[in-house]
Each structure stands twice: as C-alpha cells, then as structure tokens.
Design a protein that fits this description.
6% strand; five-stranded mixed beta sheet; 29 helices; 8 strands; alpha+beta; three-stranded antiparallel beta sheet
Length: 703
Amino acid sequence: MKRTILTIIILTVALTAMAQATQPCVVKQYNQKQQKTPLAGVQVEVRGAQTATSAANGALSLQFATLKPGDRVPFRSATKAGFELMNKTAVEQWNISRTQEPFEIVLVQSAYFSQLKSNLKQSSVDSYHKKYEQTRTELEKLKKEGKLKEQEYYDKLNELEDRYDSQLKNLDTYVDQFARIDLSELSEQEQQFIELAHAGRLDEAAEAYATLNAAGKYITAVENVRKLNEDIAKLEDEKAHHQEAAKTFFAMLQRQVNTLKLAGGEENYKKAGDLLKRAAMADTTNVEVVYEYALFTQNQRDFSEAERFWMICWRNCGDNQDLQFVILNNLGALLANINDYAKAEEYYLMALENRNRLFSQTPGDYKSGVAMEQHNLGYLYYCSHDYSKAEEFLLKALENYTQLFEQDPDAYRASLASTQNNYGLLCSSLRNYSKAEEYFLKALENRTLLFNQSPDTYRIDLAKTQHDLGFLYDDLHDYAKAEEYLLKALENKDVLFSQNPDAYRVDLVTTLNGLGVVYDDLQDYNKAEEYYLKALECLTLLYNMNPDAYLFNLAMTQNNLGILYENLQDFAKAEEYYLKALENCTLMFSQNPDTYRVDLADVQNGLGNLYSKLHDYDRAEEYYLKAQGNRSLLFLNNPDFYRADLAITQYNLLLIYGVSERWELFDEMLEQALKNYEELARQDSQYQEKVDELRELKKLREE
C-alpha cells in the first residue's frame, strides 16, 4: 500500500512540474439584472488540461501541460444539468491570463434561455412581417396612383422580397446573440432598452438606442485616440481612457445593431449597415470592428462590399492565426456563392496550407481545422465537377473526422455526418451507387441521433440526407424507397417552411423537384406535374428576387417539365419548356463553360429527342450534334464517367442518319456507338442488349 501511495505522489509532482501555465476561473450563474452568483458543480473541459469542476464558491483551476500565458485556450465545454453557456463569445476568445486574473465563465438556466430566445424570435418575425406588409402596401399605393410603372413596381417588389429573404435566413444567429446580452453589466438606461426588446417592443428599443448616439460616441472616441497618439508619452493615461471608451461605445453600438436586426425591416437593416460601416471606416486598423461589418455585408449578400472589408481585415490581422482562418474561409465561401470557384479554391488552399503547417507542429490541436479545410475543398471541387479532386479531399476529411469522432463523438458527429453525406453525393455522381448508399445511411444514422437531441437545430440536415437518399434510390430504380425518403424530406422541409418561408423556400424546391422526377419515372404523370409546377412556382419567385442565384434551379425544373410533357405527348408544352431551359443553360454556360457544359448537353439531347418524335429530323440532328460536341469534350476529360452519355447521343444520331438514308454517316456513327457500348457492357451487363442490337445492324449493313 505504501508503494502505491508513494507512486501517486511522485506522479502528481511530476505532472505539476510539467505544467506550463495555470488559469484560475470562476463559474457564475446569470441572474438577469441582478448580480451573477457563484455556481458549483460545473464541469469545465478544455484541450490540454484535465477536466475541473467548480467548487461552492464557483472557483476552479486549469493546469495546462504545454500551453503558456497568452496562448488561446482550446475550450470544449462547461456543463451542468439544466444550464448552458451564456458568455459564448468571451469563451471563444479566451487566452490564458498573464496576470493570473480569474476568467469568468457564465451559465444560464436552459429553460429561461430557451424561452427568451423563443419570445425574441417570434417578436422579430412579427416585426419583419409587419414592415414587409407596410412596404408592400406602400408600393401598391404608388402603383395605383401611377407614381410607379408596372415594371418599376415589380422590380421594387422583387428587391423587397430579396432583402427579407436574406435577412430572415440569419435571424436565428441574431436572436442567439441578442439573448446573450448580460443585463447585469449594463447601465440602468440600457437595461430598460433591452427589456423593451424582451417584451417584444423592438421598434421602441431601436428608437431608444438611437438617442444614445453610440456610433457618434464611438467615432469621437476613436478620433480622440488618434489625436492623443501625437503626444503618446505625455498622454498615455488619457489615451487608455479613450480606448476603453471606444470599446464601451462599440459594445453599445453592437447592441444597437442587434436591436435593429431583431426589429427587422429594410430601413432598420440599412441603419444597422450604415452604423457598422461608419464605425469600420472610422478606424480600419480595428480588426474587430471591420470584421463585424464584413460579416454583416456577407450575410446581406453584398459580396463586393464583403470582399473589400474582408481584405481590410486580412491586411490588419497580423499574426492572429485563428482570425486568418476565419477570413480565408469566409472569402472562400463568398466566392463559391458567386460561382468564382477558382478564387474560392485559392483561399481554401491557403487556409489548408497554414492548417497543415500548424498541424505538423501540434497535431492534436489542429486536426479538426485541417479536416474542415479538406471538407470545404472537397465540396467545392464536387460543385465544380472536378470529381477526382473532390474524392481526394473528401476522403482525407473523412479519415480525420472519423478519428476525431472516435475520440469525442458528441463534438464531431455533425461534422462527420456532413462529410459522409457529401461523399455520398460524390459517389452517386460517379455512379458508385453501393458506396453512395453506404455513406448516405451513415449520415442518416448520425443526423437522426442529432435530430432526436435537438430537432430545431438539425431538422434541415436530416431532411437533406433524406432527400439525397431518395434521389439515389430513384437512380437505382427502387421507386418505393425513393418516394418514401423524399416524402420524409418533404415533411421536414414543410415544417421549416411553415416557420420561415423565405429561409427554406429553396430547400423545399429541391424535394418538390425530386418527387416530380420519381413520379415521372413511375409514369404517374399527374403527380409529377403537380410537384414540378409547385417547384416552378417557388423558383419563379426566388428567381425574380435573385436571378443569378436561382437560374440553374429554374433551368433544371424547366427541363424536367419538358421531359414530362414529352412523355404526356403534349409536344407544344414540351418544346416551350425545353427552349426556356436551353436559353437559361446557354446563359449559364457562357459565364462558366466547365461547370454547366454537362447540363447544356442534357437539354440539347432532350430537344433532339423531342424533334425526332415530331419527325423534324433536321432540327433533331442539329441538337444531337450540339449535344455530341459537348459530351465529346466531357468524355475527353473523364471517359469512364461520360461514356454512357456520349453513347446515347451517338445512338440517337445513328437513328437520324438511318431515317434520312445517309449511309456513310450512319456507318461512321455505328462504329463509334458500338465501340462505346461494348466498353460499357464490359463493366455493366445492362448494356449488352444495346451491343447486340448494334452488332446486328452492322451485320445487316455488311450484307
């Protein structure tokens, strides 16, 4: 027994000697306007230190084995039943104190916090809707009075819809930020303003904040700082005072902006943006302030302004590596949104290179960051149809996330599920359907677990996997399963759409289209038409608000309707929708040939089929040749993937040349089609019937 005790003592001393830094903490309970009180029994976990639990006075101490004072604390969680973390932003920016000042961790009762956010969201949604209706009514009035022409009216109405769609998508984030405002740290006056917002009187709160002139005071403080720098030796104390004032007023400004966001409406968002821009332009070296405005503009889909201010952030972020990664990833996402895949790739690769460098030094701290960059790049390559690179990076991300998940399932289940789902999409596009099913089902299992824990948070992720499984089973001709999963996805998306139509309309469209495809394949054309037309209605609304963002979706739905009406032998309608799809695909192709060549070829081949049925063989040949040209280019870059599409168009041309008795062209196309179908049959027996047919034709021609 003594040997055991002695061993424990020696080990304890050794561990203490290894510690590089100690961080004292105090855990407190948030009590609204009342002072926070110590909270016992809270378990705090950070990487690089043993888990610690707060005592009766809320105190605990973290012993770091490798980190030093000034290093970022890799925080994981602070947990106690019935509570959740309140000061999330402070914890995310937590560095080990150089002066041993205790770090304050604040928890709030879960029931109170959930109810507060629910009330705030409802108040905000009501306020948005009210302002939307007011603006729409004003536009209608101007139109009736003849002060707006018909086109001007619809342009302004579309702009209105676009703004509100963009604003509502970020509402959950704004609500969460606003709910975390610590009333006990505010003046009595500001407490009253926040309480107005809590009571649903958002416009009154926003107007009350305006009386404080936070932006003006912040700018004055910044100007004072600049003046005092001219004589820093004499005025150091006064400079520090005004710097603190600038922080105080900017925090006040942030609360004012959050109030405006919650209140909603075009005018309030314009005020919020103007306030943040004034603050950002007052001192562009203040990265925190510039960051706030860059993020605001990106969420508002003002991508040129966002890029400009992210670059200002980049120039001024110094050696703050965490901020560098945030900026690079935001720039990558921004450029991917506007289909500038080359520049998006550049930023993502830069982020990955830096993550890999840090990973080589301390793998444990940076593996998750490397995995995130690999996933971002993999999905970017998937979207731009570079499937070999997409597979390379998604497999790397899968490997890393799987290892992280084994160490901490709760922390990495969502990231792993997202990567599994996107790898399933890739496998499906590569027609590796068994592997696609395997990974979709893995993603479904993880997302179902997450959904059961938090339905509101993970409903959209679960619906996306259900949708992707439905599409997979359609490709496999298992239409019962395809219908089952797509209906489940539609059910979840209907719930989300009913809560927030503007935010989830595009998600709803994808599944409406999916069901249209399934019912078309089942030859239940009435149902197919029903779902396609619902999708078209939603897409037309989205397209009118933001043509660039929804042109592709619109074109694909028009193409689907063309196929449907062709099956129904309503050839006039089929031609109408095919030609609309062709016009839109041609426009997309002119802007980005590599990305949209495959879609343009599909529409061209569809038009060839239609005109062939109408015995308009000249036009059928015209579109088949165009499709063949595009599919030949695709085939050269990826023979295995595009051989089947090329063979189909060659076979179609073969039939046209046979009908028109152009036997030299017929024989030439017969050789090309037979060669491709023979290669396909070697890999998949379903093509053997077509090979036999073509060989019989060749035999007849030789006789």
